[in-house]
């Protein structure tokens, strides 16, 4: 018996559950620009997330009058964003407090974990795993700009006991 088998037998005597990411996360809400009264927001576009550090770097300030059409998703602290355009680049980040209630591009799949089931850190770890990278590569839509639909990101199944 392997150490993993021993841990499962000890910690999960009823076995382990495999669930989809969509089962343990919810989606971000969409901004209603007319109701923002011209308030400024930090905009997290695809180039804002560093592929190596997985941290948000440079953002731009936007408001209703200058918001790009892709500036639609309201993110909260603890959300995990995953770039669905050129997904094999594995561009993802956890939203820190300073970007809570700011705006992310629709080029990201925003995953808001149900923290009673999954911790934010575990979700981020899972998105950075080789297993998830292989899943993305097998499930992306090829083209000049390969992409993976949000639904396919949410369909990824993993052990989540």
Could you describe the 3D structure shown?
This protein is an alpha+beta fold and 161 residues long. The chain has one domain: Alpha-Beta Complex (Adenine-n6-DNA-methyltransferase TaqI, Chain A, domain 2), CATH 3.90.220.20. The chain is built from four helices and eleven strands, in the order αββββββββββαααβ.
Strand content: 15-25%
How many E-type strands?
11
Helical segment tally? 4
Q: Total domains, how many?
A: 1
Short key terms for the protein model shown above:
single chain; 161 residues; alpha+beta; Adenine-n6-DNA-methyltransferase TaqI, Chain A, domain 2; 11 strands
Q: What's the short version?
A:
The chain has 161 residues and is α+β, with helices and mostly antiparallel strands.
Which helices and strands, and how do they pair?
Blueprint: H1 3-11, E1 18-20, E2 25-26, E3 29-30, E4 41-44, E5 60-62, E6 71-75, E7 80-83, E8 92-94, E9 102-105, E10 108-113, H2 120-127, H3 130-139, H4 150-154, E11 157-159
Parallel strand pairs: 4-9
Antiparallel strand pairs: 1-11, 2-10, 3-6, 4-5, 6-9, 7-8, 7-10
